[in-house]
Specification:
Elements lengths: L1 H9 L3 E7 L3 E8 L4 E8 L3 E3 L2 E3 L2 H23 L8 E6 L5 E3 L18 H11 L8 H10 L10 E3 L1 H10 L3 E3 H4 L5 E2 L4 E2 L1 H11 L8 H4 L2 E3 L10 H7 L15 E2 H8 L8 E5 L3 E6 L12 E4 L5 E7 L4 H16 L6 H12 L10 E3 L16 E3 L8 H26 L7 E4 L9 H9 L3 E3 L6 H15 L6 H9 L6 E3 L3 H16 L1 H10 L2
Parallel strand pairs: 1-6, 6-13, 9-12, 14-20, 20-21
Antiparallel strand pairs: 1-2, 2-3, 4-5, 7-8, 10-11, 14-15, 15-17, 16-17, 18-19, 21-22
Helix pairs in contact: 3-4, 10-15, 12-13, 13-14, 14-17
């Protein structure tokens, strides 16, 4: 098998996917059977500067180069051959946010990520104007808030994009965006596969004379669907990935996508009545719709699959950051006793402990709010752990409660779809860091949402594998082969994942936890108001 992998890499029968996630940049190389061969990563963190969650653009390139270098080193160390260029490359990244450039390509304001919730006024006005929910993190909300704030840089804006769109632009010179990522910038018309024309015109009329010197339609990236030509790697772009010069120009690039779209691809959740949950720094569920929702809900985003099908999205800003902070603390305790435990082993042991806890977490309560959470109407967050004097404070209950907190806000949003809209799902596919420890996050989420949850072996590869699949689709698809057929018949025909059904005891316990969670939101609100 090793010899076969070596020959595949040497012959360049591969596809490269790179995803810039919230805490990790990851590169994954897959073969023509869509099996991950090697990967490389780079850890990074957002920064809170002047009240804004941001990443420095130089860190983007440092991380991208490091992840590619680590992937190449893995090939050399394991197979004793050099990296051979792939057939195609795909770039994915966290969605939304605000990256505004002038006509010379100069960044006009610090990158404002999806995590920022300072756009409440703009989102409210636009939602009412469009009769369409505009979430706080969407790019158009950030742009309009900058206009409302009369920020000086607005007059110089010539291009507005997302992180994936920015990286793709620098690698290829093409100002384009995959339709899934574009649907997190501005509402998309699934019929025309581009921005909603009427809403574009409404925005232009609303902002005329307010500082923006160009038409909105002229500064947004051109929208592409999966499989369309998105340009090729330029000589300058090749050096941005590999400064050593071993990566040639001319490699085809697929349309850049957001982490939601690559999550759908990675879990085969692109056809009607399918859905997935992506759980990492943030957590969100995607449900591909058969029909429109009966009305607009502030808690539900409307986005699209990479091929443009309408999707209801429940997005929560906070998931594993608080959990990861506790893990660092536990590791520090171990180091105090000169005990060396690797990160995967620590997570596996602590996650496993959660299954030993009381079904409701023993009366404990946790809020994982590092940032604001629109689902629960909080503009800012304060991580909190709360208990009553008679709560059962055990390690097992602590871990179960902390894991429950990663999915509590999601439960509130999903209840709208399953109870108010009567949407039924056969199962959800899970991917992302929360599912790396086998059977724990998967079991608890199944009971929390009362739907079977499946996880595939590739779940830990997440969006990097998903964008590699989209790169492969662009090169391998038949003349009339849809993305839905490509994934179902070629990629996932023999891999439906391992599914766990809801457990009655866990489901009832989670409901009791949620009663406390909803009642305790006043504590979180008071903390935000009084702890500055």
């Amino acid at each position: 098998m090793e010899q076969g992998i070596k020959e595949t890499i040497r012959a360049g029968k591969t596809f490269l996917g790179i995803e810039l996630g919230s805490t990790r940049i990851k590169a994954v190389l897959i073969d023509e059977d869509y099996v991950p061969l090697v990967s490389g990563g780079y850890d990074w963190e957002n920064r809170l500067e002047d009240g804004i969650w941001t990443y420095h653009l130089e860190d983007v390139w440092t991380g991208l180069q490091s992840s590619f270098r680590n992937l190449s080193r893995e090939i050399t160390d394991r197979y004793h051959i050099p990296f051979t260029p792939p057939q195609a490359i795909g770039i994915s990244a966290m969605m939304h946010g605000y990256l505004a450039f002038d006509k010379n390509g100069t960044l006009l304001a610090p990158f404002r990520t999806w995590r920022n919730t300072t756009t409440e006024k703009a989102a409210q006005v636009l939602s009412e104007k469009f009769h369409f929910n505009i979430p706080l993190r969407w790019s158009i909300a950030h742009l309009y808030q900058a206009i409302l704030n009369k920020e000086d840089h607005v007059k110089d804006i010539a291009f507005l994009t997302t992180l994936a769109g920015y990286v793709h632009w620098k690698l290829s010179g093409e100002k384009v965006l995959g339709i899934g990522d574009a649907s997190g910038m501005f509402p998309i018309d699934s019929g025309t596969k581009t921005y909603q024309r009427t809403m574009v015109e409404q925005f232009e009329a609303l902002t005329r004379g307010e500082g923006l010197q160009v038409r909105l339609g002229d500064i947004l990236p051109r929208v592409l669907t999966a499989g369309e030509n998105a340009g090729t790697l330029s000589a300058e772009g090749a050096k941005l990935i590999d400064p050593d010069g071993n990566l040639p120009a001319g490699i085809p690039l697929c349309p850049p996508e957001g982490d939601a779209g690559t999550g759908m691809a990675a879990t085969n959740s692109v056809a009607e009545r399918t859905g997935n949950v992506s759980a990492g720094t943030s957590i969100f569920a995607m449900v591909v719709l058969e029909k429109d929702l009966s009305r607009m809900y502030p808690e539900i985003d409307m986005v699209t699959t990479p091929s443009g099908k309408p999707v209801a999205m429940v997005h929560c800003n906070n998931c594993t950051s608080d959990l990861d902070a506790w893990m660092k603390l536990f590791n520090e305790v171990l180091q105090t006793f000169v005990a060396q435990v690797g990160k995967p082993a620590l997570y596996d042991a602590m996650y496993g402990k959660a299954l030993e806890g009381d079904a409701d977490g023993g009366g404990l309560l946790s809020y994982n709010y590092y940032g604001g959470e629109p689902i629960t109407a909080l503009e800012q967050g304060r991580p909190l752990f709360v208990r009553l004097p008679d709560s059962s404070l055990t390690l097992a209950n602590f871990m179960r409660t902390t894991l429950y907190s990663t999915m509590a806000s999601l439960k509130i949003g999903m209840d709208i779809l399953t109870e108010k809209e009567q949407i039924r799902l056969d199962r959800l596919l899970g991917h992302g860091g929360l599912f790396k420890t086998k059977g724990v996050g998967q079991r608890l989420l199944a009971s929390a949402l009362n739907v079977p949850v499946a996880v595939m072996e590739s779940a830990g590869e997440g969006g990097a594998w998903g964008i590699a699949l989209l790169a492969a689709y662009g090169r391998q698809k038949g003349e009339t082969e849809t993305l839905e057929d490509f994934l179902a018949r070629r990629v996932f025909a023999r891999n439906r994942g391992e599914s766990i059904k809801p457990d009655v005891r866990d489901r009832q316990g989670f409901e009791r936890f949620m009663e406390r969670y909803r009642a305790g939101l006043a504590i979180e609100s008071a903390a935000v108001e009084n702890l500055q």
